[in-house]
Predict the structure.
Amino acid sequence: MKKIEAIIRKTKFEEVKESLLEADIEWFSYYDVRGVGKTRQERIYRGVVYDTSYIERTLLTIVVRDVNVERTVEAIVKTAQTGEIGDGRIFISPIDDSIRIRTGERGDISLYNPK
């Protein structure tokens, strides 16, 4: 099992969500986050200077079976990529175990309902 964390543009969230559902990735968590990137900008609005170096993004957290890792990553990259600076990052980490609290099932079976 792997945990995939993807930081994407907020404007791409709905497209990425649909792409993941099409790839049969039916469960994930997401959070609105802020970060600091390489780009430093200030914008002036009505005479007030605003620092826009804090970038609003969405963080997706997805735990998948090993066989679904590439499919998940491809779905995210395909829809989140604009080719511009600030498209985001994907991190993949190993997961030792997973337990479904309701049934006590452990391992891969605890991630999804068998079909």
